[in-house]
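quick one, 190 residues, struct below
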Amino acid sequence: MTLLQIMSDTDAAEVKLRTDDDAVIAAELGKRGIIFERWPLLEITGATPTADIEAEYAARIAELNADGRYKFIDVARIHPDADDPEWPAKAAGARGKFLDEHRHAEDEVRFFAAGQGCFYLHLGEEVLATVCTAGDLVSVPAGTLHWFDMGTEPEFVAVRFFEEEDGWIGDFTGDKISGGFPTLDELLTS
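---
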């Protein structure tokens, strides 16, 4: 379920808005300079080959990158593997990489072809928890304070757009604000 929950940055219990209405989500994010779109949903799973995903979404990707701004476009994926005894540690490690507040030198643009993840956008006196699911595209402007939670059982396939090869590297603020907000799992069960 795609979801937007807007909270005070000093008190996560102070929920100003909670909605799963795509039009309201797009409007609220748009007022704050965040692009949110829904792309047609295709049959994509964690096992779908990258080339097939790129081919299926080629027209949308080309439209988004019409100005040639994004030099590096790839597909990131994480999928549970019950046969791998190291999976829980790998999942925890992947999840932990971006749970703390950070920013990027370029826009963070993601299209979720499958699965889900949550961008927490720290904008002034608000934190916007933006749960993205299959079909959602989000573009977070460069310099925006945020963190990302993929949940305790991470599973997603996302097309990522970068201007520079190292555009995904975060500049961490050292602020532990993320610890005071509901996790992706908690947002989905509340």
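The chain has five helices and eleven strands.
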